[in-house]
Design brief:
The chain is built from eleven helices and eight strands. It is α/β, with parallel strands linked by helices. The protein has one domain (2-277): TIM Barrel (Alpha-Beta Barrel). β4, α6 (144-153) and β5 (157-161) form a beta-alpha-beta unit. Mean pLDDT is 91; it is low at 275-279.
Length: 279
């Protein structure tokens, strides 16, 4: 277990919020922004979901107090989506409202496909009132082209990711090649239709493609990556004048997060070991 903890600490800040704030401030000094996420999902206990809302609000307070250049990322099943859509909507609205008052951006993470529809619907409702919000969309899902078109038309902000969940081939692209092709397609659309969006990948080919394509569009684009992965690439991008942001998770629920990242995207094993041993 001690090895697993050391392994996980390469890409998880720690178990408490102060760990995440320290990590965020460290990245800020290197010219890198931060997205702070409190680990945990699929909460069905109402009391626990309420406490999770309080913890996310505490993150906003600490970001403001510390002066960290950071935003917040939330998972809807962590704050009660499975206990009721309406209560979850009200909680997201509360978090987004407090964040807006502190001039902090809030990202809505995307989870596996059973929650995609509700997550998008809740985001679009929140967006009507709070523009300081964005949503992750996964290029492995076949529905994502329609979702991105709809969200962009509403003026939403998108974090484009490949997708960290195994999905049925009926609804998702299952080969790395097809996922990357769809990522490229969706990225091209966003370069035309969105004034700002985030590219969340460690894929050199897609990052270079985005850089080259954006020379013609001159859109505001930021590159988002996982804490502890591809550090040399982050610093290279920053030195070349690009905006880079680290996704910094923390919390006691670190093991499921770590196992899923490795199991569902085996390439992460290579990326993590490259970061650990710097080869």
């Amino acid at each position: 277990m001690s090895f697993l903890i050391r392994f996980a600490r390469q890409w998880i800040a720690g178990e408490i919020l102060d760990d995440a704030i320290i990590a965020a401030k460290k990245e800020n000094k290197a010219g890198i922004g931060a997205i702070i996420n409190f680990l945990g999902e699929h909460v069905r206990d109402a009391a626990r979901a309420k406490k999770n809302v309080e913890e996310n609000i505490r993150i906003l307070e600490r970001i403001e107090e510390s002066g960290a250049r950071a935003s917040l990322s939330i998972k809807l099943t962590q704050i009660g989506l499975e206990t009721g859509r309406d209560i979850c909507l009200s909680r997201v609205e509360k978090i987004a409202g407090i964040a807006a008052s502190k001039n902090i951006f809030v990202w809505v993470d995307m989870e596996n496909s059973p929650y995609t529809k509700d997550t998008i619907e809740i985001y679009l409702e929140i967006l009507k009132k709070y523009r300081n919000t964005g949503i992750a969309i996964q290029s492995n899902l076949k529905r994502s082209e329609n979702d991105i078109t709809r969200i962009a038309a509403a003026g939403g902000t998108i974090r484009l990711v490949k997708g960290a969940y195994r999905e049925n081939k009926e609804i998702a692209y299952t080969s790395r090649k097809d996922v990357a092709i769809n990522f490229s397609k969706l990225m091209g659309y966003l370069l035309y239709k969105s004034p700002f969006f985030a590219i969340a990948t460690h894929d050199d080919l897609l990052i270079n493609e985005a850089i080259e394509a954006n020379k013609a569009h001159q859109k505001r684009v930021e590159f988002q990556m996982l804490m502890g992965v591809r550090e040399e690439l982050k610093y290279k991008l920053v030195s070349n004048g690009f905006t880079v942001v680290d996704y910094i998770p923390y919390g006691k629920n670190w093991l499921p997060y770590s196992v899923r990242r490795v199991r569902e995207r085996k390439r992460n094993i290579l990326l993590i070991f490259r970061s650990i041993f710097d080869f």
